[in-house]
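dumping this here before i forget
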Amino acid sequence: MKIEEKIKEAIAKDINNLGYILWGIELSGKSNSKHIRIYIDNNNASITLGDCEKVNLCIDDVLENSDFVTFNYSLEISSPGLERTFFNIQQLKNFEDQIILVKYEEDSRKDSVLGKLLLVSDNHIEVMNNKMESIRINQNNYITSKLIYKG
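structure:
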């Protein structure tokens, strides 16, 4: 099991109990020192600095007392923001008709498409690229995507 999955398993319930949604986890750094970025969201209001501080205090205790975090780390709690990253296709369901950048794998090579999100189903998404072609991306090929904010 990947370390991100272990972290998710350890903290998801606590984040939910605090009234937030665990949006995603990013890990960066070297093997002995990592930066852990945890994205939280809320269906009812914007995420504030106070929300991030509350989650940070709770999650830091969980990680400090875990047996799988065997490296030095810095912890950051953040909102997904306007140009949010989507970690799975289910997160895209409320963003149809928006412009997104999708990274995916096809025939063992990584590719990306920028376009309008047309459809989100349980096992694939469809994106209209700038050539007005509909690109279908299966869940198994999906890597990540990002909302492109057009303010």
